[in-house]
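Hey, I was hoping to borrow your eyes for a little while. There's a protein on my desk that I can't quite get my head around. The fold is given in discrete form, as structure tokens running alongside the sequence. I'd be grateful if you could look everything over and explain what you see. Here's the protein in full, and shout if anything looks odd to you:
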Amino acid sequence: MIKTIRHCFSCDLKDDPKLIEEYKNYHAKGNARPEITQSIKDAGIVDMQIYLTGNRMFMIMDVDETFDPQKKAEMDAANPHVQEWEALMWKYQQGLPWAKEGEKWIALEKVFQL
């Protein structure tokens, strides 16, 4: 059995219903770009889900013991497909009000677990 670790993040979409629908279409079942999903898997991400309420998103990632965020960032920087995807996503995504300049996905702080 593979041991996984869960990471949770949040990001906002631009509060524009048309843009939100476009974003959802890019992520609809069967529409995900295979080179992007492969880059996610290659980094040790076992499962990834994104949830939306209004224009706020929550991403839940289960990663295996090989996952290293710094290595993932380096892999993404060297992958032109990922760079193209990230540039496209800036059309739709924006940082949370408290995000640093250029920062979109912010790690959530766990405050309760049953």
In short: The chain has four helices and five strands. The radius of gyration is 14 Å. The helical segments are 17-27, 34-42, 69-77, 80-89.
